[in-house]
């Protein structure tokens, strides 16, 4: 679960995008990020309503999706 900041950490240097979608499929966050194993990127989610969101992380070649709970 997340309440204020969603942290994204990659196993290596990473430049890409994070998108969060609501349960209805609406795009809620579309943010460019840069991170590495020792410096995760932080996404501010305080403005989002409580609920379940799909997180999509991509660098243009690779895609990763998961679901999170915002409370």
Explain what this protein looks like in three dimensions.
The chain has strands spanning 5-8, 14-21, 27-35, 41-44, 51-58, 63-70. With 71 residues, the protein is an all-beta fold.
Topology, pairings included?
Blueprint: E1 5-8, E2 14-21, E3 27-35, E4 41-44, E5 51-58, E6 63-70
Antiparallel strand pairs: 1-4, 2-3, 2-5, 5-6
User: What portion of residues belong to β-strands?
Assistant: over 45%
Largest sheet: 4 strands, antiparallel
What global shape is seen? Answer: globular
The tally of beta strands, per DSSP, is: 6
Mean pLDDT: 96
Radius of gyration: 12 Å
Structural class: mainly beta
User: Level of helix content?
Assistant: under 10%
Query: What series of H and E elements makes up the topology?
Result: EEEEEE
């Amino acid at each position: 679960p997340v309440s204020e900041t969603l942290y994204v950490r990659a196993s290596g240097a990473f430049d890409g995008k994070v998108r969060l979608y609501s349960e209805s499929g609406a795009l809620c966050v579309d943010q460019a990020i840069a991170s590495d194993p020792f410096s995760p990127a932080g996404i501010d989610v305080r403005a989002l309503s409580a609920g379940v969101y799909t997180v999509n992380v991509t660098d243009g070649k690779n895609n990763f999706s998961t679901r999170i709970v915002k409370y």
